[in-house]
Amino acid sequence: MPWPTARGQDQLPPDQAAELRRTQLYAWMTGGGTSAVREIDTATMALAAEITKAGTETPKANGKVSVDEQAFHRLCGAVGDRVVEAQRYFSVPDPELRTAWSDALARMRKGAQECQDAMVPPADGPQHTDEERARLFTASLHEVTDGYGNLASGFKAIAAAAAATPAPGE
Questions:
Q1: How far separated are the first and last CA of the chain, in Å rounded?
Q2: pLDDT tens-place string over residues 27-76
Q3: Alpha helix (H) ranges present in the chain?
Q4: Rg (Cα) of the chain, in Å, rounded?
Q5: Which of 22, 51, 103, 169 is deepest in the core (most CB within 10 A)?
Q6: What is the tens place of the pLDDT at every residue in 78-111?
Q7: Distance (Å, rounded) from C-alpha 117 to C-alpha 76?
Q8: Can you give the pTM of this predicted structure?
Protein backbone atom coordinates (compact mmCIF):
# COMPACT_ATOMS: atom_id res chain seq x y z
CA MET A 1 0.00 0.00 0.00
CA PRO A 2 1.61 3.30 -1.00
CA TRP A 3 2.28 5.92 1.65
CA PRO A 4 -0.02 8.92 1.38
CA THR A 5 1.76 12.17 0.62
CA ALA A 6 0.60 15.66 1.35
CA ARG A 7 -0.30 17.82 -1.61
CA GLY A 8 2.64 20.03 -2.42
CA GLN A 9 4.96 18.05 -0.14
CA ASP A 10 7.65 18.13 -2.82
CA GLN A 11 7.53 21.94 -2.74
CA LEU A 12 8.31 22.25 0.97
CA PRO A 13 11.56 23.87 2.08
CA PRO A 14 14.20 21.15 2.66
CA ASP A 15 14.10 21.37 6.47
CA GLN A 16 10.30 21.03 6.53
CA ALA A 17 10.35 18.19 4.00
CA ALA A 18 12.95 16.36 6.12
CA GLU A 19 10.88 16.85 9.26
CA LEU A 20 7.76 15.59 7.50
CA ARG A 21 9.65 12.50 6.27
CA ARG A 22 10.97 11.80 9.81
CA THR A 23 7.46 12.14 11.19
CA GLN A 24 6.12 9.75 8.56
CA LEU A 25 8.85 7.22 9.37
CA TYR A 26 8.12 7.52 13.07
CA ALA A 27 4.42 6.95 12.39
CA TRP A 28 5.25 3.95 10.17
CA MET A 29 7.33 2.41 12.95
CA THR A 30 4.91 3.05 15.81
CA GLY A 31 1.83 2.23 13.76
CA GLY A 32 2.87 -1.32 12.94
CA GLY A 33 6.31 -1.45 11.32
CA THR A 34 8.04 -2.36 14.57
CA SER A 35 5.41 -5.01 15.32
CA ALA A 36 5.89 -6.52 11.87
CA VAL A 37 9.63 -6.80 12.47
CA ARG A 38 9.05 -8.42 15.86
CA GLU A 39 6.70 -11.00 14.32
CA ILE A 40 9.21 -11.81 11.57
CA ASP A 41 11.97 -11.99 14.16
CA THR A 42 10.02 -14.46 16.31
CA ALA A 43 9.29 -16.72 13.33
CA THR A 44 12.88 -16.51 12.07
CA MET A 45 14.32 -17.32 15.50
CA ALA A 46 12.09 -20.41 15.71
CA LEU A 47 13.44 -21.49 12.32
CA ALA A 48 17.00 -20.79 13.50
CA ALA A 49 16.40 -22.97 16.57
CA GLU A 50 15.35 -25.86 14.33
CA ILE A 51 18.44 -25.32 12.15
CA THR A 52 20.60 -25.44 15.29
CA LYS A 53 18.82 -28.59 16.44
CA ALA A 54 19.47 -30.25 13.08
CA GLY A 55 23.09 -29.18 13.28
CA THR A 56 23.56 -31.08 16.54
CA GLU A 57 22.32 -34.36 15.06
CA THR A 58 24.86 -37.12 14.57
CA PRO A 59 25.51 -37.72 10.87
CA LYS A 60 24.58 -41.08 9.42
CA ALA A 61 27.13 -43.39 7.80
CA ASN A 62 26.73 -41.43 4.53
CA GLY A 63 27.72 -38.23 6.37
CA LYS A 64 24.24 -36.72 6.11
CA VAL A 65 21.85 -35.63 8.82
CA SER A 66 18.11 -36.25 8.77
CA VAL A 67 15.91 -33.23 9.33
CA ASP A 68 12.32 -33.03 10.48
CA GLU A 69 10.77 -32.11 7.14
CA GLN A 70 7.35 -31.33 8.60
CA ALA A 71 8.84 -29.03 11.24
CA PHE A 72 10.89 -27.12 8.66
CA HIS A 73 7.88 -26.93 6.33
CA ARG A 74 5.79 -25.46 9.15
CA LEU A 75 8.49 -23.06 10.39
CA CYS A 76 9.34 -21.81 6.91
CA GLY A 77 5.61 -21.34 6.34
CA ALA A 78 5.39 -19.24 9.50
CA VAL A 79 8.26 -17.03 8.30
CA GLY A 80 6.52 -16.65 4.94
CA ASP A 81 3.21 -15.78 6.60
CA ARG A 82 4.81 -13.09 8.77
CA VAL A 83 6.56 -11.64 5.72
CA VAL A 84 3.29 -11.51 3.77
CA GLU A 85 1.67 -9.69 6.70
CA ALA A 86 4.53 -7.16 6.69
CA GLN A 87 4.17 -6.71 2.93
CA ARG A 88 0.49 -5.84 3.43
CA TYR A 89 1.33 -3.05 5.85
CA PHE A 90 1.88 0.48 4.54
CA SER A 91 5.04 0.82 2.50
CA VAL A 92 7.97 2.61 4.10
CA PRO A 93 7.47 6.35 3.42
CA ASP A 94 11.05 6.96 2.27
CA PRO A 95 11.76 5.79 -1.32
CA GLU A 96 15.32 4.55 -0.68
CA LEU A 97 14.47 2.85 2.59
CA ARG A 98 11.30 1.42 1.02
CA THR A 99 13.31 -0.29 -1.72
CA ALA A 100 15.71 -1.94 0.75
CA TRP A 101 12.82 -3.01 3.00
CA SER A 102 10.74 -4.40 0.12
CA ASP A 103 13.71 -6.24 -1.37
CA ALA A 104 14.53 -7.87 1.98
CA LEU A 105 10.91 -8.97 2.46
CA ALA A 106 10.76 -10.36 -1.09
CA ARG A 107 13.98 -12.30 -0.52
CA MET A 108 12.70 -13.78 2.72
CA ARG A 109 9.36 -14.68 1.16
CA LYS A 110 11.07 -16.40 -1.77
CA GLY A 111 13.37 -18.34 0.55
CA ALA A 112 10.52 -19.37 2.84
CA GLN A 113 8.45 -20.67 -0.09
CA GLU A 114 11.44 -22.53 -1.55
CA CYS A 115 12.11 -24.06 1.87
CA GLN A 116 8.53 -25.32 2.07
CA ASP A 117 8.72 -26.70 -1.48
CA ALA A 118 12.02 -28.48 -0.73
CA MET A 119 10.62 -30.09 2.41
CA VAL A 120 7.19 -31.05 1.06
CA PRO A 121 7.22 -30.76 -2.73
CA PRO A 122 3.92 -29.56 -4.20
CA ALA A 123 2.03 -32.37 -5.94
CA ASP A 124 1.78 -30.35 -9.14
CA GLY A 125 5.40 -29.17 -9.06
CA PRO A 126 8.60 -30.72 -10.30
CA GLN A 127 9.79 -33.81 -8.47
CA HIS A 128 13.42 -33.67 -7.34
CA THR A 129 15.86 -36.28 -6.14
CA ASP A 130 16.78 -36.26 -2.46
CA GLU A 131 20.13 -34.71 -3.42
CA GLU A 132 18.40 -31.90 -5.34
CA ARG A 133 15.95 -31.32 -2.50
CA ALA A 134 18.84 -31.05 -0.02
CA ARG A 135 20.58 -28.51 -2.26
CA LEU A 136 17.36 -26.52 -2.72
CA PHE A 137 16.69 -26.64 1.02
CA THR A 138 20.16 -25.33 1.86
CA ALA A 139 19.86 -22.56 -0.74
CA SER A 140 16.43 -21.59 0.61
CA LEU A 141 17.77 -21.25 4.14
CA HIS A 142 20.57 -19.01 2.86
CA GLU A 143 17.95 -16.89 1.11
CA VAL A 144 15.89 -16.55 4.31
CA THR A 145 18.89 -15.75 6.51
CA ASP A 146 20.43 -13.30 4.03
CA GLY A 147 17.04 -11.62 3.60
CA TYR A 148 16.68 -11.44 7.38
CA GLY A 149 20.07 -9.76 7.66
CA ASN A 150 19.02 -7.24 5.01
CA LEU A 151 15.71 -6.70 6.81
CA ALA A 152 17.48 -6.04 10.12
CA SER A 153 19.84 -3.56 8.44
CA GLY A 154 16.94 -1.89 6.68
CA PHE A 155 14.93 -1.58 9.86
CA LYS A 156 17.94 -0.13 11.66
CA ALA A 157 18.23 2.49 8.91
CA ILE A 158 14.51 3.28 9.19
CA ALA A 159 14.81 3.65 12.96
CA ALA A 160 17.82 5.93 12.59
CA ALA A 161 16.01 8.11 10.05
CA ALA A 162 12.97 8.35 12.34
CA ALA A 163 15.00 8.97 15.50
CA ALA A 164 15.02 12.73 15.13
CA THR A 165 11.23 12.83 15.31
CA PRO A 166 9.96 13.67 18.78
CA ALA A 167 7.16 11.56 20.15
CA PRO A 168 3.69 13.06 19.66
CA GLY A 169 2.96 15.75 22.21
CA GLU A 170 6.61 16.58 22.89
A1: 29
A2: 999 999 999 999 999 999 999 999 999 989 888 888 888 899 999 999 99
A3: 14-28, 34-55, 69-88, 95-119, 130-162
A4: 20
A5: 22
A6: 999 999 999 999 899 999 999 999 999 999 999 9
A7: 10
A8: 0.86
